[in-house]
# Entry
Amino acid sequence: MKHQNGFSLLEVLIAVVILSFGLLALAGLQLVSLSSNQSAGTRSTATTLAYDMVDRMKANMAGVQAGQYSGIAGSDNACEAVHYDDVHAAPAACTVTELAQDDVYDWKKTVAGLLPSGSGTVCIDSTPSSAACDGAGLSYAVRVSWNDKPKNQSAVTKSVAIGFQP
# Structure
């Protein structure tokens, strides 16, 4: 009887082809994972930005109760908020309206800078999770939206809405 020693060339070729397909599948999984991770990171940033606006509103409760934050575009006025140890406080010469205008302006600028096609709105809304503001109710809605473009797909508008009731 004749005994065979080692593998034949055909067996080695089949093993290399199977290994190659496995490595290609692994690379595809890694790409999907990176895309999903980027999307989750963007959503996390949007949520943090929405809570940032809620914190600004809590620091200017007189402006919130006067309705100064609802539906405004914001403006870059001379009234700048002072930050001490992450505490948002208004200078003595700053009115609640000026602080609200400055808060919204700074916040919208930050949203536009950190998120792809990012935009933010603050309004009074009875259902903060809805897409549009109805101007009714006691709650404020802080909404952040951006374009999320998964790999090889067209951009999809995503949004985060946070409700705030003073």
Summary: The chain has a mean pLDDT of 81. Helices lie at 9-59, 61-65, 96-114. The longest helix spans residues 9-59. The longest strand covers residues 140-148.
